[in-house]
Amino acid sequence: MTRMIHILNGPNLNLLGKRQPEIYGHDTLDDVATQCAEIGREAGLETLLRQSNWEGQIVDWIHEAREQAAGIIINPAALTHTSVAVLDALNTFEGPVIEVHISQVHKREAFRHHSYVSLRADAVMAGFGIHGYSLAMRHMAKLLG
Ligand code: CA2
After folding, report:
1. Number of domains in the chain
2. Do residues 58 and 28 touch, judged by C-beta distance below 8 A?
3. pTM (two decimals)
4. Does 19 contact ligand 1 (Cβ within 6 A)?
5. Cβ-based neighbour number of residue 14 at 10 Å
6. What is the pLDDT of residues 101-141, one digit of tens each?
7. How far apart are CA 60 and CA 132, in angstroms?
8. Which of 41, 43, 101, 130 has the CB geometry, 3.0–4.6 Å to 126, for a possible disulfide?
């Protein structure tokens, strides 16, 4: 059976490629989905990419991943820095979790330097642009063997 990777994206990431290209680049979330699916195919992994502006929806999708996914790649966006609820949900997931940030958050405002999600993440990518998702997929394939 093909193993499934859920790629979850938080608030405002629907605007990727449409606003602030100087920070987040020109590629869209659809481009991310295409690239991750391609890497997944090579590695025998299926991918499902989702985005929501709602914290509770992200929590519900993490619960869904408990039943359906072998691993989670998550860019929680601003929820990274605020959400104990997302952290608590991730703590109930048993497989590998990789946190991705498109921008180099440690070069930005101080409030972006702390991540609740990093308390659970097995690996963290920051500052690789959307390539960070591809790198996370490759690392996920390695972790899952
Ligand atoms: O660098 C990242 O990936 C972030 O997770 C992006 C979040 C930010 O709050 C985090 O500190 C770092 C913001 C997502 C907003 O996405 C946009 C994309 C394009 C245009 C406007 C917003």
Report:
1. 1
2. no
3. 0.98
4. yes
5. 14
6. 999 999 999 999 999 999 999 999 999 999 999 999 999 99
7. 24
8. 101
